[in-house]
Design goal:
Blueprint (H helix, E strand, L loop, with lengths): L22 H24 L25 E16 L4 E12 L6 H4 L2 E3 L2 E6 L3 E5 L2 E13 L12 E9 L7 E4 L5 E3 L8 E15 L10 E14 L3 H19 L5 H29 L8 H21 L6 H27 L10
Parallel strand pairs: 1-8, 1-9
Antiparallel strand pairs: 1-2, 2-6, 3-7, 4-6, 5-6, 7-11, 10-11
Helix pairs in contact: 1-3, 1-6, 3-4, 3-5, 4-5, 5-6
Length: about 375
């Protein structure tokens, strides 16, 4: 009697529990996640989203001005020709420029007008005054080289924009004696900053005063000085910085997710190597983020992203250890869930970032 040979098992006979996840499934999920991530980064980078307060000086109010002895009005303006230092990461700048003043010489002397300085800045060089008469008013020019720092808020790093502020002040007089007048057209910034990775979006000036607090128990002791604030809104010039810091973390998670496509009974060691390498790479990438980030004591967007991806990577690594007891259907559900979490995190954080977009009358 002829012995019947049992047919060898085909791919179709493989148990659904161990049937690998199709390549098309991964391509679709990865494409959707990466597309939303790139779109989110693009939207945030293209929108001006500075966190800094617009103004650091206070505006003069009528009650501060004595109408019987009104302060002397002095027109002023500033032109920035060249940046020698433009370090947004450390909030340090150095520029060459010209500052000018126009006033009635019969009411105030050049010596008093020339006693100007910049808050949190040093005038490295100031030329001798060049002057000329314009009808009954005197126009005085100074060539200056100034290095200054400004307070920046980096909580939206690396998709942050910033307002840098330069404050001109004369500490030899009070607002009751001297009052600055300036128009936006008198504030000129010529150098292009694309080579530094930033684009000038808008600029604005404000006249007012700064306050020196002498005694917190008695405000009448405080000293006031006339001041002008020069503000420039700078926006990141491209997606490079954000992509370099955020997208590698997405890649590490995607590698861990794709490793679940393989049969754990045959490729368990490969799955653990892929997951372990991705988790180690994500932890090591933290040092890259630290080297490229400003040194601050609060959390930034890059820190939140890293923590989200680190928790996901740790969970995926633990699931990979017990992958033999997890069906492919459960793994497929897990992959969809993780992609959904990635997409949701981008949408939530982007919505938070866009809440800082300026919609006031000053900048728009």
């Amino acid at each position: 009697m002829e012995e019947k040979k049992s047919p060898s098992p085909s791919i179709a006979d493989v148990s659904p529990k161990h049937k690998p996840i199709s390549l098309l499934f991964h391509i679709i999920t990865i494409s959707i996640t990466c597309a939303i991530a790139l779109l989110s980064i693009k939207i945030t980078v293209e929108q001006p989203t500075p966190v800094e307060e617009e103004f650091s000086i206070k505006s003069l109010i009528p009650s501060m001005i004595n109408t019987n002895n009104a302060p002397i009005p002095i027109k002023t303006g500033l032109s920035i020709y060249n940046y020698r230092i433009f370090d947004m990461l450390n909030a340090t700048y150095e520029f060459e420029g010209t500052i000018w003043f126009e006033f009635d010489p019969s009411t105030i002397s050049i010596d008093t007008v020339s006693e100007f300085e910049f808050e949190k800045g040093d005038i490295i060089h100031k030329s001798s005054p060049r002057s000329r008469l314009n009808k009954n008013r005197l126009l005085v020019f100074y060539d200056i080289l100034v290095r200054f720092k400004t307070e920046l808020n980096y909580k939206l790093f690396p998709v942050d924009d910033h307002i840098i502020k330069l404050i001109l002040v004369n500490k030899k007089v009070t607002p009751q004696e001297l009052m600055y007048e300036i128009h936006n057209q008198s504030f000129i910034v010529r150098p292009k900053t694309e080579s530094f990775g930033w684009i000038e979006k808008l600029k604005e000036v404000l006249t007012g005063y700064v306050e020196e607090v002498i005694d917190t128990r008695n405000e009448s002791y405080n000293i006031y000085h006339p001041a002008v604030q020069f503000s420039i809104l700078y926006r990141r010039s491209g997606l490079k910085y954000a992509l370099i810091l955020l997208m590698p973390m997405v890649v590490f998670i995607i590698v861990m997710l794709t490793s679940f496509s393989y049969d754990p009974y045959k490729y368990f060691s490969s799955i653990m190597v892929a997951n372990g390498a991705s988790l180690s790479g994500l932890i090591a990438f933290r040092f890259v983020i630290e080297n490229m980030s400003p040194e601050v004591g609060y959390f930034m967007i890059s820190d939140y992203f890293f923590l989200i991806f680190l928790v996901l990577a740790a969970l995926l690594f633990l699931i990979g250890i017990f992958s033999m007891n997890v069906s492919m259907k459960a793994k497929k559900t897990l992959i969809l869930l993780v992609h959904g979490l990635l997409i949701s995190s981008f949408i939530i954080i982007v919505s938070y970032i866009l809440s800082f977009t300026y919609h006031g009358t000053h900048f728009f």
